[in-house]
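As a warm-up, study this chain.
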Amino acid sequence: MVTVGILFGGRSGEHEVSRCSAASVFTHLDRAKYNVVVIGIDYDGRWYLQDKPEVVHDDSFGTVLKLEKRNECFINHYERDGRLYLYNSVTGDEVAADVLFPVVHGTFCEDGTLQGLLDLSSVPYVGAGVAGSAIGMDKDIAKRLLRDAGIPVVPWIKITKINWNDEKDKIITQICDDIGFPCFIKPANAGSSVGISKVKNISGIDKAVTEAFLWDYKILVEKGIDAREIEIAILGNELPEASIPGEIRPNHEFYSYEAKYIDADGAQLIIPAELDAETAKNMQNTAIKSYSALECSGMARVDFFLDKKTGEFFLNEINTIPGFTSISMYPKLWEHTGIVYKELINRLIDLAFNRAESKRSLKHDF
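Now compare it with the structure written out below.
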């Protein structure tokens, strides 16, 4: 029987979100088809094998996977029969996983770092590889590649810390002249709306920039658009499929971290989205095109802004490890398209093995 390793937690501002997503994956994994090994990563980056995985109540997130800081372990960073081996740092006991299901959102996983580690071990894993993960996480690089692929993106400017320190007044003028208000200031490499501020006038820029720089050395300033938020789920490797579109209707000023995870009434999920057939099809095709342009594989959620006045749509961002709770948009979109949660997990694991097999067929030496 195949052993699936569920990896959760991590060193990012989305640690708690990851625990919530992992609880759902753990609960819905088909025990008749898979054995399961659960590995929690603490805030300091230590890996802990969970000998008795437990889903517990959380006041903010409903349910989360408990992270016990026992059984600290190391892993093989070299190929050993295509499996990931976890070695207890005290006893030396080992446990192996045939495929990894990373449910670690944000930095030090969704950005390609974890994928690189798993590639060293030639271990199959769910989701995008190093390139797709890194590109999808970096909103600035992703926007440039999408723009070059002919995909419409929201106007933006990039700011680095050194730019801000040396040319603050010039940048503020550029924001006022080229972007305007309202605008959104956000870290280039973060998810779950962490570090994002909506800025309505020039007086709010400094505070928003300071907040964004807490999370990344590079930040973005994006034009604010009065838009509907449409999301499409993608599944597949070389021949990806698109789900039906869904719509997020925030009850907050924008779809913030609180609206997504803390406030039970923070947003409405409308599936399917109320779109005409032509717009829906164009968005689906654009989502698939962007998925391929950014070197994604396995899965992703593609988020669009649909301008309420003009009817134009813009690709906002792509999420290579989307929220995976049973009520998250990614699994809900596939459920309404015809793939239930348990089958979705099966499909993703199959895709992980298929991609790993393709990579193993390549030559690595002369």
